[in-house]
């Protein structure tokens, strides 16, 4: 297994893990399962390809092998295009239950932090649903503060 950036054309793998995350933890995301499931293949492809190639947003997955995803995270700049990046936001953080408690959540955060650093971001922000203590502890161990 490895953590890596989503590749162009991997919209089906991205969609699979994103819908699974929304189905199993609807409380943890701003998007609903119904909203996401109603998107067309073209919409999934466009968004996934943007996560794969953009210099302003990026998506990373835990690849279980042969492109089977076991987790995901994304990061996006919080600036207008063309501005100098300074802040970015971590989004869509999810790790399958059987991979929790290991190194995978931290490895996903390392990936988005590396991307953000490489483009000059100085501060990453994220939000955690109230009561989601497990996620809060992961972020806290990684240096995030309320």
Task: Give the arrangement of secondary structure elements.
Blueprint lengths: L1 E4 L5 H14 L8 H5 L3 H13 L3 E7 L5 E9 L9 E9 L8 H15 L4 E3 L7 H9 L5
Number of separate domains:
1
What's the CATH architecture name? 3-Layer(aba) Sandwich
Based on CA atoms alone, the radius of gyration comes out at: 14 Å
Structural class by helix and strand composition: alpha+beta
What is the distance, rounded to the nearest whole angstrom, between the alpha carbons of the first and last residues? 31 Å
What proportion of the residues is helical, as a percent range?
Answer: 25-40%
Q: How would you spell out the order of helices and strands?
A: EHHHEEEHEH
Globular, elongated, flat, extended or rod-shaped: what is the shape? Answer: globular
List the strand order in the largest sheet: 1-2-3-4-5
CATH topology value? Aminopeptidase
Give the overall average pLDDT.
90
As a percent range, the share of strand residues is 15-25%
The largest sheet, given as strand count, sense and whether it forms a barrel, is: 5 strands, mixed
Low-pLDDT runs of 5+ residues are none
**CATH superfamily, please?**
Gcn5-related N-acetyltransferase (GNAT)
Supply the number of helical segments: 5
Level-1 CATH class name: Alpha Beta
Give me the count of strands. Answer: 5
């Amino acid at each position: 297994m490895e953590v890596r950036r989503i590749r162009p054309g991997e919209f089906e793998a991205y969609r699979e893990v994103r819908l699974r995350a929304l189905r199993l933890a609807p409380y943890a995301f701003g998007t609903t399962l119904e909203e996401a499931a109603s998107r067309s293949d073209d919409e999934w492809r466009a968004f996934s390809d943007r996560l794969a190639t953009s210099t302003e947003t990026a998506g990373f997955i835990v690849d279980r092998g042969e492109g089977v995803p076991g987790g995901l995270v994304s990061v996006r700049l919080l600036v207008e295009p063309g501005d100098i990046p300074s802040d970015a936001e971590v989004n869509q953080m999810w790790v399958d239950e059987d991979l929790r408690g290991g190194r995978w959540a931290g490895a996903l955060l390392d990936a988005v932090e590396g991307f953000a650093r490489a483009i000059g971001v100085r501060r990453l922000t994220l939000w955690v649903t109230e009561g989601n203590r497990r996620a809060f502890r992961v972020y806290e161990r990684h240096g995030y503060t309320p």
